[in-house]
Design brief:
Elements (H helix, E strand, L loop, with lengths): L3 E6 L3 H12 L1 H8 L3 E7 L3 H8 L4 E3 L2 H5 L6 E4 L6 H11 L3 E4 L2 H18 L3 E2 L10 H8 L5 E7 L2 H13 L3 H10 L8 H4 L2 H15 L9 E2 L7 H9 L2 E11 L4 E11 L11 E8 L3 E8 L3 H17 L31 E11 L4 H11 L4 E7 L13 E8 L2 E2 H12 L9 E5 L4
Length: about 450
């Protein structure tokens, strides 16, 4: 049987990794796919560099539109990134009747509905395992392995940069700026790390997972996103004392009134497996009604881990290349005409436990005032920690202020926000209240 012919858009980290893995393991891949898979054409900006990597056996050019229009190609692999040119190229490839493999989570989170509709109209596939958690096969698990389950919730450490930073802050006791600088020096963080540290990258990924888990369209615009740039080392320390670790989690959960879709720093009990995922590693915990909790762990980025997922998609598409489109696995696991319009809940309607840190005057009655406000809001306290003052005034004496740390039972966010407003109005509370959400993951 003739090999499947592939066109590659981009030859950066993911593109070059894909080229190398596919060529190195081509015999193993052929045996699994049932036919050869060959990259025969590449489009890049730097043609000379691409030729140095790909050699002379592959056609290399700088016109990506000519590549997606090439009638000899069966599959287009998109690794250029971004949502402008990439969207244009992917839609053109689909309308030309070509299958597409992409690692572009932003593209799918923002334009996935349009892209999947175009693919269905042309009877072709869009494969995107590499778009979430690098080499971890979480998309296949959600779309196929757990298809018998009603997925109840997903919680994932799905950004290696932020997990590395949080691990450094906890293990070395350094502040955010120091840990970020170390991550940049070691190559874990970009020169401009905004998408990572502000939670946008994780939100793209959890948006994709939520669509597959719950059978809803991509709704990135409704996700709640909070990063780690405002996180203080003292809160990581206090959380540890209380038996918790702080991770940036992407969370998608069914609730009575809709779906929770959120990214934020989260306290997790330190005995949980997810709390012990350190460094730049990723992990996703999925809870199904039949199977219970399942954990997926591995490298979430890098040339070859991501290439592993891209090549796996190429094998899947090759196997199904001639299959009846009606009998392929749907892009979002559910049939396109069966997607739900279940709304995404605003963060104020989310239920969670909360960590509160208050800087207060060390005087009689302050704790009673705070607990009274919480009780009036129907908020019960699970744990309390009061710290001796470690700061001094100009005379070198204790400044008469102390930290109070409260852990609450589960409550609705709008209630905790109302209570915080009242607490901050107390004359004995000398700074804004630090609020972090908590998840038991049980």
């Amino acid at each position: 049987m003739e090999p499947i012919k592939v066109g590659l858009l981009g030859l950066g980290t993911v593109g070059s990794g894909t080229f190398k893995v596919l060529n190195r393991n081509q015999e193993e891949i052929r045996r699994r796919a049932g036919r050869g898979i060959e990259i025969t054409r590449i489009a890049v900006r730097n043609v000379a560099r691409a030729r140095a990597i790909a050699g002379n056996a592959v056609e290399v050019g700088n016109d990506p539109f000519a590549l997606v229009d090439d009638p000899a190609l069966d599959i287009i692999v998109e690794t250029v990134g971004g949502t402008g040119l990439a969207r244009e190229l992917v839609l053109r490839a689909l309308r030309n009747g070509k299958h597409v493999v992409t690692a572009n989570k932003a593209l799918l989170a923002l334009h996935g509905t349009e892209i999947f509709e175009a693919a269905s109209a042309s009877g072709v596939m869009v494969a995107f395992e590499a778009a979430v958690a690098g080499g971890i096969p979480i998309i296949k698990a959600l779309r196929e392995g757990l298809t018998a389950n009603r997925i109840e919730w997903i919680a994932g450490i799905i950004n290696g940069t932020t997990n590395f930073i949080l691990s450094e802050m906890r293990e070395r006791g350094v502040d955010f700026a120091t840990a970020l600088a170390d991550a940049q020096r070691l190559g874990y963080a970009e020169a401009d790390p905004t998408f990572d540290i502000e939670g946008v990258d994780a939100a793209h990924k959890v948006t994709i997972m939520s669509a597959i888990a719950f059978g809803v369209p991509m709704q990135f615009e409704h996700a709640y996103i909070e990063g780690i740039s405002g996180l203080h080392a003292v809160d990581i320390k206090y959380a540890e004392e209380l038996g918790y670790r702080i991770k940036l989690l992407g969370i998608a959960r069914r609730a009575e009134q809709g779906i929770e879709l959120r990214v934020h720093p989260t306290l997790i009990p330190s005995k949980r497996l997810l709390a012990n995922v350190e460094g730049a590693m990723n992990a996703v915990l999925v809870h199904g009604d039949a199977v219970g909790a399942t954990l997926y762990y591995g490298k979430g980025a890098g040339a070859e881990p991501t290439a592993s997922a891209v090549v796996a998609d190429l094998v899947d598409v090759t196997r199904l290349h001639t299959a009846d489109p009606e009998h392929r696995v749907p892009h979002l696991a559910f049939q396109p005409d069966s997607l739900s319009s279940t709304p995404i809940l605003p963060i104020t309607e989310v239920h969670s436990g909360y960590y509160l840190r208050l800087r207060v005057a060390d005087v009689t009655g302050v704790l009673a005032d705070i607990t009274k406000i919480l009780a009036q809001g129907g908020i019960s306290i699970d744990a309390l920690l009061q710290k001796e003052s470690h700061t001094v005034n100009q005379q070198g004496r204790p400044d008469g202020e102390t930290d109070i740390i409260l852990i609450t039972h589960v409550t609705v966010e709008k209630n905790i926000n109302a209570a915080i407003t009242q607490i901050e109005a107390l004359s004995t509370v000398v700074s804004t209240v630090v609020k972090l959400r908590m998840e038991a993951l049980s």
